[in-house]
Amino acid sequence: MNLEAEKSRDDFHMSINESDPIVDDAPQTGGGKSRIFKLVTWALATGCFYLVYGRIAEVAARNMQTPIEYLFEFFSEADWLVWLSLMIPYSIFFFLVDTHATWRVIRWFNAPDIRFTNILPIRASAYILSLVNEQIGKGAMSIYLYKRHKVPGWEAVSSMIMLGMVEIYQLLIFSAIGVFLYTELVEAASTQLPLYRILTLVFLFALLYFPFHIFYFSGKILAGSTFKDKPLLRTFRQARPIHYLLVLLFKAPNLLLAVVVYTAALDLFHVQVSFGQMLAFLPVIFLAAALPLPFHAGALLLWTVLFPDYPEVSAFSLVMHTFFVTFNACIGVLFLPKANKELF
Asked: Global pTM?
């Protein structure tokens, strides 16, 4: 990193410390807690992988195979060229839709004069950083907004949090639609967990929370509460219901296409899964992937729970995710010269 880059980074941190009191008031967390958290997440991830491996080994044994032989046969029967013809356009489409939604939110709440072409290289380069840590990837957008548009760091992060909330609600809404339309499929998959009851409770909680969220941050209820005044929550104070709806609509094509792509991709691996099953289950799997577990271990385990007859789909999902993030990082490499020019 050159001196100018280091100066930009230092100035960015100074702007946060000087303009955002939330940083000064934030509790200082010790390295010990961080290490304990990492140990717990790795222990949970190890447990998830152990359970997944056990299910694969059980099915492989019934076919007189080792788990390695079983997985090798599973992947060798796939049509990889057709799979690539699905995944490459999907990854590019996802990048464009994701960038568009991010651009809209930033224009509304941070930098009204910013252009879509300004955001493209920054969002693309963030995918490279996301290979290491997704939060670091989001930090690249905050640095850009501070340097080019003088947006304080926490205000930029606030918009990213709002985007994250909409993403969660998007997954819940589409999953609820899938569960409503294909209830019998959900009940059929509830052999190891009472999925229908669990999902219904989650949907109900989300439905009740959203109006509370809107009324609280607009000051119509609990007006004396100061929690909503934190700089980190600035975008929530400014956002109106129409903003949430529009972001949801902007991002919806990505999830709908993901359902189609995953359904078609599983068919290439000779796993018979209907569009209805994917519509009901894939959003929930994506939510599990958001858990802070290494290698998205929670999602891997959930695949085997939802599709107990095909435990090998957990390995399939790992291949899908690995290709997706790697290809997106390659997109980032293409935009990297432009991103470096914008950032440094």
From this structure: 0.80
Q: What angle do CA 136, 138, 342 make, to 5 degrees?
A: 100
**CA diameter of the chain:** 67
Cβ neighbours, 10 Å, residue 5: 13
User: How many CB atoms sit inside 10 A of residue 144's CB?
Assistant: 27
Q: Which residues contact 199 (CB under 8 A, 6 or more apart)?
A: 175, 176, 179, 186, 284
What is the C-alpha separation between 269 and 287, in angstroms, rounded?
24
- CA pair distance 148, 207, nearest whole angstrom: 38
Tokens 């599983």 sit on residue = 266
Number of other CB atoms surrounding residue 31 within 10 Å: 7
Contacts of residue 26, defined as CB under 8 A and 6 or more positions apart, other chains included, come to none
Neighbours of 24 (CB within 10 A): 9
Amino acid (1-letter code) at residue 143: I
Let me know: does 277 contact 185? Beta carbons within 8 Å: yes
C-alpha 76/C-alpha 319 separation (Å) is 13
Residue 154 near residue 22, CB atoms below 8 Å:
yes
What string of DSSP letters covers 133-167?
Answer: -HHHHHHHHHHHHHHHH---HHHHHHHHHHHHHHH
pLDDT in tens, 179-221: 888 777 777 766 666 778 888 899 999 999 999 999 999 989 9
What is the residue extent of each domain of the chain?
33-343
- Say yes or no to pLDDT of 8 above 70: no
Cα 124 to chain centroid distance, Å, stands at 15
Amino acid (1-letter code) at residue 217: F
In the chain, the N- to C-terminal Cα span, in Å, equals 10
Q: Which residue, chain included where needed, has tokens 């409503």?
A: 180
Dist. CA 313–CA 262, nearest whole Å: 11
pLDDT band at residue 27 under the 50/70/90 scheme = very low
- Among 316, 343, 312, 339, which residue's Cα sits nearest to residue 53? 312
Radius of gyration for the alpha carbons in the chain, expressed in angstroms and rounded: 22
**Are 175 and 283 in contact, with CB atoms under 8 Å apart?**
yes
Residue 239 gets which letter from DSSP?
-
